[in-house]
Amino acid sequence: MEKMSSKKTKVDIMGNGVLPRRTLDLYAMNAGDGPRSYVQNSSYQRGAVDIAKPIIEEEIARKLDIKHRSSTSPNGFWVADFGCSTGHNSFPAMQIITRAIYRKHASSGLITSQIPEVFVLFNDVITNDFNTLFTSLPPRRRYTAIRLPGDFHSRLLPESSLHFAYSSWALQWLTQVPKEVAERDSPAWNNRAILYTRDRKEVCDAYLNQYAKDIEAFMEARAVEMVSGGLMAILVPAVPAFWNPETEYTIPSDLNLLGSCLVDMAKTGKFSEAKVDSFNLPFYFTTPEQLKAILERSHSFTLERLEILNNPGKYTLPSVNARAAFYRAVLEGLLTDHFGSDIIDELFTLYMEKLAALPVFLNPDKDKSTVILAVLKRRSE
C-alpha cells in the first residue's frame, strides 16, 4: 500500500473483495451531483448521522481500545465506512469519528507526535461514483482518504488491520433477492409485488432469512479484519414490530406503492406482467428485535449498545417531487436494468400522482420508519 505524505492527498487502492453476483453492480446510487443524483437527494439518510453523533462520540470516548495496533501498519489508525456512496453523508460521519478518535488519544496522555495518523477507507460496490466522492473530499480534514471498492459482505482488508468500522444506511441491501420469492411453484412466490408485505408470511420469512445470512457474513468479515478491542457502529434503517398500515406508513409501504405503479403500467401494456413478477427489490428493513437477535449470535463481537432513533431526516421530504427524487436516486439503476430507461419518467410521474392522492404519505409524523444504532466491540483474542 503506497501512502503520500500530505493528509489532503488521496490514496487509491483496490480491495480484494469479489462481488459474488452481477446484481451487486447495480446497487450504486445515482452518480454525479446533478438534480437526480444521490448527492442532491439523500437528506433523509443524513438525519440519522446527525442524531447519532453524541452516542458515537460517547462510545468512542468510553470503549474504544487504542492499545492494539494494526498488524500491517502499526503507526496508523484505520477507519472504514462500508457503503459510503458518494460521500455526502459519509464525510460528516467521518469528521465525527476521526475527531473523537483524536480526542481519545489525546486524553490518554499522548503528545501530538505520538498520536497515530488516521486513515479512512471509503468502501462501496465497484460501480460506485468514487470520482464524485474524492473530488468532494473536505479540504480541512485530519485523515488520509483511501478508495476501497468491493462487496462488504466478504473480506476486503488484511487480518487485524482495522480499528473502527462504520456503516450507515447500507446493511438493508441484500446480496441477492431470496430465490424462492421468484419461483412460481414456491409458497413464497411474490407475484404482483416488488417487496415483501406483512400479509405474506412466507415472503417475509424468506427475506428475513436472507437478511440474517448477509448480516452474519458482514460480521464475520469484519471479525477477521478488526483488531481486538476495535469498535463498530452501524446505522440500520428499520421498522417497528407493530404499526397501523391504515393510518401510518414505513419505507416498505412506500416501495410497495411504487410497485403498484409498475403493476398498473403492465396492465396498460408498457411491459408484461411477468416482467413485474420477476422483479423484486433486494432490501430488508429489520425490526429492532430481529437485528438484536442476529447481532447477539456473534461469537466475535459484544453488543455494547443498541438505540432506536427517530430519524429527523423524514422531515426533509416535504413534497411528492422530493419523495420521488429520493427513491429515484436510489433505485434508478435497478429499475433501468430490468425495465429499461424508457419507462422511468412515466413510472415516477405515476408514483407522484399516487402519493398526492394518499395524504398519509405526505405527513412525516406518520412515517414510522426508524433507524437502529448498534455499537459492537471486537472481543479480545
The helix-and-strand class reads alpha/beta
Q: Count the beta strands.
A: 8
- Give a quick account of the main beta sheet: strands, pairing sense, barrel closure: 8 strands, mixed
Please give the domain count.
1
The CATH architecture is 3-Layer(aba) Sandwich
- For CATH, the homologous superfamily is named as Vaccinia Virus protein VP39
CATH structural fold name: Rossmann fold
CATH class: Alpha Beta
Strand-and-helix sequence, N→C? EHEHEHEEHEHHHEHHE
Q: What strand order characterises the main sheet?
A: 1-4-3-2-5-6-8-7
Strand content: 15-25%
Protein name: Probable S-adenosylmethionine-dependent methyltransferase At5g38780
Organism: Sesamum indicum
GO molecular function: metal ion binding; methyltransferase activity
Family: Belongs to the methyltransferase superfamily. Type-7 methyltransferase family.
Describe this structure in words.
- The two termini are about 25 Å apart.
- About 35% of the residues lie in helices and about 15% in strands.
- The model is unreliable at about 1-20 (pLDDT under 50).
- Helix 1 runs parallel beside helix 2 (about 90-105), helix 5 crosses helix 9 and helix 8 (about 320-340) runs antiparallel to helix 9.
- The chain is of the alpha/beta class and about 375 residues long.
- It has one domain (about 10-380): Vaccinia Virus protein VP39 (Rossmann fold).
- The protein has an eight-stranded mixed sheet, with helices on both faces.
